[in-house]
Amino acid sequence: MKAFLLAAGLGTRLKPFTDHHPKALAPVHGRSLLEWNIRNLQRFCIFDIVVNVHHFADQIIDVLEREKGFGSRVQVSDESDAVLETGGGLKKAMPFFEGAGTLLVMNVDILSNFDLDRMLEQHRQSGAAVTLAVQQRETSRYFLFDETRQLRGWENIKTGERRIPGDFQVADLGPYAFSGIQLMEESFLPGIRQEGKFSLVDVYLDRCVTQKIIAWDHTGDALLDVGKPESLERAATLFPDTIQ
């Protein structure tokens, strides 16, 4: 099993920090978000990690080299020429995932105490191609699932945009907020047909009619999208300095 940390974003909401640094190096208790997530993955015996980089890429590479990957085997997928979003970044990094079997993909600016072992157990028992970590919470964008927790659509309640492939009725679908964490089988990757810059949301909506993409509801777990300066302060309160 391998992990892919999405760290190439510009982090515009974290200005002024990201005027001079990548968001992956934003500190919580004196440790970067990158270190927090690498060490958290080690708790679940995941030591093979790929990190994509774009904004101040050299800073992330320097830290990983200096800290020897914080004890993990970390490879870098360099997007210095152009940021490719979540889907494009995953597709560019595909050569690194050979032999992974199952792949964990998560945003580097997400902090959570979610239980990866439980998520992985459900993923494998279900036979799903992809499992999306979700919660019942307020947000502007939702994945839509049917009664069997299979993905059937997506909506943005602020703009009114709704995307439901197939013949599913929105009244029969339940909205869940995405946690920025997903498990996928390596066999899912070659079928990604999009090119260049694109979101994983596009991939999931493209494939959910023909492949099993399910929800793992971890409502109640601590989850924080560290996207704003005030979120860094909240992170220091929600997540005590317990990593070793």
UniProtKB/TrEMBL annotation:
Pfam families: NTP_transf_3 (PF12804). Keywords: Nucleotidyltransferase, Transferase. The keyword Transferase applies. GO terms for molecular function: nucleotidyltransferase activity. The lineage of its organism: Bacteria, Pseudomonadati, Bacteroidota, Chitinophagia, Chitinophagales. This is MobA-like NTP transferase protein. Residues 3-149 form the MobA-like NTP transferase domain.
